[in-house]
Design goal:
Shape: elongated
Number of helices: 10
Largest sheet: 4 strands, mixed
Strand content: 5-15%
Helix content: 55-70%
Number of domains: 1
Radius of gyration: 22 Å
Oligomer: single chain
Strand order of the largest sheet: 1-2-4-3
Length: 299
């Protein structure tokens, strides 16, 4: 079996490759369709301009939105001494500032990390998680979340979400322009290249229809890769992969988290919708059984 360091480097390379695929998808599809229909590249610039404000809000305030959405409350140190001590000790070991600690009042067994970098990070845990796990298992979960923080996974996930958002926005804009904006009027049409441009426009239109689905699947793949990376990072931090493996076994049998929504589901250590119909089809997490198998196979 590969070592911890090997798994971390492998997952980083795979995630970087997936980001490149998203960028190529956006640039290629938008460029093809915009040029074939309009003869210019104005619309991608307009779409990007419109997306910038919402992207900035998500980047700088996304952590606060995620915490409020999931009804997380700041946990005083005198109330949660043990969990604060675990977070502080592991943060010191990881060489990062201690994140703020929040509690979600729910019997579900789950946790998530948020924040744009280690200096602005927070960790939220459910009350059910603290009640049901022993210390070694809690350390495994916290180490996993600190892995997300140290590896800048939250920033990474934000960038992927922005890229996917670009695809959806541009797809909708171009579809509306095609059907309600006069169809395929391009500079090359007026110069006698109408048939070729019409074919290019049709190809671009087909790609724009399917590209949001492709981009979403890429986003899910990126999220899954980051979970594997955080598992390996957490095991490396505690030097005890079995603690996280046992925690995942207990988490897999717990109830769903009522406060979770589609916008924040990818943040959690385990899919918060695991008991909802068809949720596995668009799951942002790899199967827990596979994660446990990898953890127990680590050297």
């Amino acid at each position: 079996m590969p070592s911890l360091y090997t798994q971390i480097q492998t997952n980083k390379r795979k995630s970087f490759f997936l980001i490149i695929v998203v960028l190529v998808l956006v640039i290629g599809v938008v460029g093809l369709y915009s040029y074939s229909v309009r003869g210019d590249f104005v619309l991608p610039v307009i779409a990007a301009f419109l997306a910038i404000p919402s992207s900035l809000i998500g980047y700088y305030a996304g952590d606060k939105i995620a915490l409020v959405t999931n009804r997380a409350q700041l946990l005083p140190e005198d109330v949660g001494r043990e969990i604060h001590r675990i977070v502080e000790n592991l943060a010191i070991t990881a060489g990062i500032p201690k994140p703020k600690v929040y509690m979600i009042n729910s019997p579900a067994l789950n946790a998530f990390a948020t924040g744009r970098d280690p200096d602005h990070a927070s960790i939220a845990v459910t009350s059910g998680l603290v009640d049901k796990l022993d210390r070694a298992e809690l350390e495994g979960v916290i180490a996993h979340e600190l892995g997300h923080v140290k590896n800048y996974d939250i920033r990474f996930a934000t960038l992927v979400a922005i890229f996917v958002g670009f695809v959806v926005i541009l797809s909708d804009m171009f579809m509306r322009m095609t059907w309600f904006g006069g169809g395929m009027r391009s500079r090359n049409n007026r110069e006698g290249g109408g048939q070729i441009q019409a074919v290019l426009a049709i190809i671009g239109l087909i790609l724009l229809i399917v590209s949001p689905i492709i981009a979403k699947m890429i986003q899910l793949a990126v999220s899954r890769q980051r979970e594997y990376l955080a598992d390996a990072s957490g095991a490396l931090l505690t030097r005890y992969p079995e603690g996280l493996a046992r925690a995942l076994e207990k988490i897999s049998t717990g109830p769903s988290l009522e406060t979770a929504g589609n916008a924040t589901a990818h943040l959690f250590i385990s899919n918060p919708f695991k008991h909802k119909s068809f949720s596995h089809l668009f799951a942002t997490h790899p199967p827990i059984a596979e994660r446990i198998k990898r953890l127990r196979g680590l050297q």
